[in-house]
Amino acid sequence: MKTFTIKIPAGIRESEKIRLIGQGKKGENGGKNGDLLIKINIEQNKKFRLEGCTLYTDLNLTPWEAALGARINIEGIDGQETVYIPQGIESGEKIRIQGKGYKDGKGGRGELVAEVKIMVPNKLSEEEIAIYEKLKEVSSFNPR
What we know:
Layout: E1 17-20, E2 36-39, E3 49-51, E4 54-61, H1 63-68, E5 70-76, E6 79-85, E7 94-97, E8 112-118, H2 126-138
Parallel strand pairs: 4-8
Antiparallel strand pairs: 1-2, 3-4, 5-6, 7-8
């Protein structure tokens, strides 16, 4: 059994192959060794989903960040990206960051798309409960 160290080129696609010349099966009747083909499988993970050159991720927001707007950091494949969250954004809306997705193999990059998910705390302090109760009294907002 042999071990190989190979360089995976940036922007390689699902099911593309890397060829290692002369590293395959021995040739017949003293012929040259064949080539070894390595098929690429790109594994999706919990943080990012890859579709073409577009990377998708979830962007969890607090209710007050969504209602008031905010500047927040999200994690991309190159590190932290600062994004502006507009006031009144809703779950399911998408924030698109050009040029921060997967490499396209031609020197460009796709988008990083962050899908908004507004998260509600499942445990509240007494002060938080009081603030939500006050908001319920003063707000005229009704989403139904």
